[in-house]
Write a structure and sequence with these properties.
About 75% of the residues lie in helices and about 0% in strands. The protein is mainly alpha-helical. α5 runs antiparallel to α6. The longest helix has about 30 residues. The N and C termini lie far apart (about 45 Å).
Length: about 130
């Protein structure tokens, strides 16, 4: 369900822009927003590619380089948070913006805790 939502959000926009005669992504989606906001569309596209790469975990999850895909997915979720706060028209006013800031703070705390535990476990194995 989450994968479907991740694909539908940019997919429906790209399809409608194509139907409106504005072409295919990435150009149509970058031109859809104001020129100063195009970077946030690019951020979202990079994050989408990272999330799609994470779907290959079943095939490549045991490879030694896979940890870098996991690190990239942690960065990608922060990039999506930035994308949503900058481009989400419903988040510009009202009570939803503080909720998204709460989500961002919660994400930062949980990732910091996760990486702290990984660091501590690595230190324990080095000492042994």
């Amino acid at each position: 369900m989450v994968l479907a939502a991740i694909l539908l959000h940019p997919g429906l926009l790209a399809w409608q822009l194509w139907r409106d005669g504005l072409g295919l992504p990435p150009g149509s989606e970058i031109n859809y927003v104001s020129p100063s906001m195009g970077i946030y569309v690019v951020i979202a596209m990079v994050s989408l590619l990272i999330f799609l790469a994470y779907e290959l975990r079943r095939m490549y999850g045991n490879r030694p380089w896979w940890k870098y895909v996991q690190y990239a997915s942690d960065v990608a979720i922060f990039l999506i948070l930035i994308h949503s706060l900058k481009l989400g028209s419903q988040l510009q006013v009202g009570w939803l913006r503080p909720i998204w800031y709460f989500y961002g703070i919660t994400l930062a705390i949980s990732l910091a805790y996760t990486y702290l535990l990984k660091y501590q476990n690595r230190q324990k194995t080095v000492v042994k």
